[in-house]
Amino acid sequence: MRSYFTSLLIPALLALTLTASAQSSRRQDDGDLTERKNLLKINVPAIALNNYSFQYERAIGKKISAGLGFRFMPKTGLPLKGTLETVIDDEETWDKLKALKTSNTAITPEVRFYFGKSVFRGFYLAPFAKFATYKADLPEFDYTVEYTDPSHGISISRTEEIPLSGDLKTITGGLLIGAQWKLSKLLYLDWWILGPQYGSSKGHLKGTKQLDQYEQQAVRQELEDLDIPIVDSEVHVDGNGARMDLKGPWTGLRAGLALGVRF
Question: Which of 68, 111, 177, 261 has the greatest CB tally within 10 Å of its CB?
Fold first, then answer.
């Protein structure tokens, strides 16, 4: 999947560059670029993480621009598993979550204030908002059922599974510190140096399965024992399945290196 998207994105960017170059061949003065108020960019390093991040930026003043970013990640396993394993320091929680399949989308509007000679060039500060949705599938959530058979008086222990899926929606705001350089007449390099962000999150994980009283108790215990960082959780279990509601603060860092074409 990753190679498929990469094979489409890079040629598309190059094609846009060549087209723009051909259209501008009749222009003799670099000052004509002031008529070109738009930049279209792609965050190149993010492709290695199966993330496809684009940004459209438009000049709205001599040193001010407005931008809109869009990011999506197709369903895949957890990225940066080694890092996440150190963050989730509970071994039992990690054993259950490492098989998680996740995808996400995000929209990021921003306003940039440049400190260089003109818009699109030099260091900048960019207040931004970010609206993201993370989807998750955990097809094999294990739980152990233990009880005493009343008819025979023996202890019984068995392992069962319940599939879980859900989503988490986040709203954050932050300030991006960055710098942008002109590489050629039409090509630009945008370095998103550091963009701390903070906000809130809300979502759920849900699984549907017929559960007897012993299974309900076991599923409830396993879900309550999950040590999920950042967010708070509330577990609800009945004879038709289980649901974990997630809510709490959300934080993150925005960074990247984007290649753009001016048009």
Answer: 261
